[in-house]
Amino acid sequence: MLNTRARILDTAQRLFAEQGYQHTSVRQIAERLGLTKTAVLYHFPAKVDILLALAEPFLADLEAAVGVAEDRWGAIEGLLEAHLKHRHLLHNNVLQDLAMMAQESVARRYARLMLEANRLVAGPGPDFATKVQAAQAIAMLSDPVIIYADAPIDDLRAAVLAGVKAFYSDDSE
């Protein structure tokens, strides 16, 4: 059974997906759980703290992927796995409600991670065209996962990797 904090996050994520972050109140989260608003605020002092807690596992998984990647394909596969793992969160917070990325701390951390991923994918000493190509390859990882979040995960993984491999088909790496 989930602890209270985990139940709050699960319920908040569902409500944010149903009606958006801006249209969901702490009171609604509490009522859905059969708790008081004060009980929810004990765990999360403000609604934005719930949003930040929802973003944390995704950002941590991106950091882990970037941290262990040693080359282009290691970075691509690691980033893809992080996106796949959090595909429903991303789908709801990118296609329906941009509240999560509107949080400065989330946006800064995400941008830093994507810049590091771009560096890894571009490889050592890249020219401008190679840097642009790396950015394109990384963008190819998130968009299909966000758009097709409900597709079978193995099919989605295979299709995305096939697309990235085709993109780099003229490349010797």
UniProtKB/TrEMBL annotation:
Q: Name one Pfam family in it.
A: TetR_N
Q: What range does the record give for the signal peptide?
A: none
DNA-binding region positions on the chain:
25-44
HTH tetR-type domain location is 2-62
Keywords recorded for this protein, A-Z: DNA-binding, Transcription, Transcription regulation
Specify the domain of life of the species encoding this protein. Bacteria
GO molecular function (one): transcription cis-regulatory region binding
Can you say what this protein is called? TetR/AcrR family transcriptional regulator
Organism of provenance: Amycolatopsis acidicola
